[in-house]
Write a structure and sequence with these properties.
The structure is a single chain. With 367 residues, this protein is an alpha+beta fold. It has 13 helices and 7 strands. It has helices spanning 23-32, 45-60, 91-103, 122-125, 138-154, 173-176, 199-210, 221-251, 256-282, 303-312, 323-326, 330-340, 343-348, and strands at residues 3-4, 77-78, 83-85, 130-134, 158-162, 186-189, 194-196. Strand 4 (130-134), helix 5 and strand 5 (158-162) form a beta-alpha-beta unit. Helix 8 packs parallel to helix 10 (303-312). The radius of gyration is 25 Å and the shape is globular. The structure holds glutathione (GSH). InterPro entries: Glutathione-S-Trfase_C-like, Glutathione-S-Trfase_C_sf, Glutathione_S-Trfase, Glutathione_S-Trfase_N, GST_C, Thioredoxin-like_sf. Belongs to the GST superfamily. This is Glutathione S-transferase.
Length: 367
């Protein structure tokens, strides 16, 4: 139902904002799926939605205009003829995103509204707040550990779904929609209808969202830079090599003589990277041995450590790297043990993420 209002909207005050919507889209939206508008700040769903609509109308229908003034606690939508649309309820906003707007491609594919389809497993589709899709591999464990650390300090809550990457569940459409790279882990922030791929970006996203007191990152720009250096170093120069060691020693389907070059190459690169971290931790060039990768003095445990530890602690997994090889890295070995002692690290690598112990978390094809 629509209401007539005075010609001038009385509440277009300082706290108001205006948006312009393409009128026929707006007509469909408001008649079928009422839109709630709030006076809350710019990260509210309705404001973001409004911004999206503004982009649409500017591009396609520059002349069509709907005013959406928001002031104080009033929640009112106006069109150009000052016709007032009644106020609406929050639950309609999500429904709106998933139906009329999305199906008409008014929102670009990257936008949040496209997170789920009917194919998305129900526990993920109906998840609220933060949701992790994982398997307890080194990459999965990075995010599992940080979430457990955040829970220990802030009581952070999230849901977990475990998939079996052996069945290629991560290559299905429902998953690629969340992470086009088709790999775990993925974090979904349902509060913002936003998904995050790539472990380092996920760690950064989570500390930004949850770690208000900076337990796992830094406020000082130089310390923060150091954190990023080691986070990126491992992401770009550590995991890819160690991942190839695992591949060429454990999985590659070729006769051993054909694998030798790749095996030697990636094993040596991995050991070289371990050596880089050993130099840093030993204080060889600074005179200051360190306990952790980033931070002044001996450093502070942070997402730089969390981003690399789950891989490095598994140095023996492929069978390629021997105890004797590792003797060259005494500081690295102590760092592995130091971090392994943390309760949240034990939780993040433990039974809570073992699909055989938590079958209720399993989604998708099992085997
Ligand atoms: N660069 C990615 C790598 C993620 C990744 O490789 N995940 C592995 C598990 S450790 C995976 O999903 N593999 C399945 C596949 O390759 O299809 C990240 O840091 O998130």
């Amino acid at each position: 139902m629509w209401y007539k209002t005075p010609r001038t909207a009385p509440h277009l005050g300082r706290s108001s904002f205006q948006i312009y919507l393409q009128s026929s889209a707006c007509m469909r939206i408001t008649s079928k799926h009422p839109l709630q508008l709030t006076s809350r700040p710019s990260n509210s769903p309705s404001f973001r939605f409004s911004q999206q609509c503004r982009g649409i109308s500017n591009r396609i229908y520059p002349k069509a205009a709907w005013f959406v003034p928001v002031a104080g606690t009033r929640r009112i939508v106006y069109n150009t003829r000052n016709t007032e649309i009644p106020t609406f309820f929050p639950s309609t906003v999500n429904r709106l995103r998933h139906t009329s707007i999305q199906s008409r491609n008014y929102i670009t594919p990257n936008m949040a509204s496209n997170l789920y389809t009917d194919e998305t497993p129900e526990p993920i589709r109906s998840s609220k707040g933060l949701h992790l899709i994982t398997q307890s591999t080194p990459n999965g464990q990075k995010v599992q550990i940080l979430l457990e650390e955040l829970k220990a300090i802030y009581g952070t809550e999230w849901g977990t779904s475990i998939i079996n990457i052996g069945t290629n569940e991560q290559k299905k459409d429902w998953f690629l929609r969340l992470n086009p790279n088709g790999r775990i882990p993925v974090i979904i922030d349902n509060d913002k209808s936003f998904s995050v791929m790539e472990t380092s970006a996920e760690l950064l996203y989570l500390v930004e969202r949850e770690d208000k007191d900076h337990h796992f990152d830094f406020t000082d720009p130089l310390e923060k830079s150091q954190l990023l250096q080691w986070l990126y170093f491992w992401h770009g120069s550590g995991a890819p090599y160690q991942g190839q060691v695992n591949h060429f020693f454990k999985y590659a389907p070729a006769p051993p003589e054909q694998l030798q070059y790749a095996q030697t190459r990636f094993k040596n690169e991995t050991l070289r990277v371990f050596g880089v971290i050993e130099i840093h931790l030993s204080g060889k060039y600074t005179g200051q041995p360190r306990e952790y990768l980033a931070g002044n003095g001996t450093g502070k445990y942070s997402i730089a450590d969390i981003g690399s530890w789950p891989w490095i602690k598994g140095w023996g997994w492929s069978g390629a790297i021997t105890k004797q090889d590792m003797e060259a890295f005494p500081h690295l070995l102590k760092w592995i043990d130091r971090i392994a002692e943390r309760p949240a690290v034990k939780l993040g690598t433990g039974d809570a993420y073992d699909a055989s112990k938590r079958p209720e978390l399993y989604v998708g094809e099992k085997r």
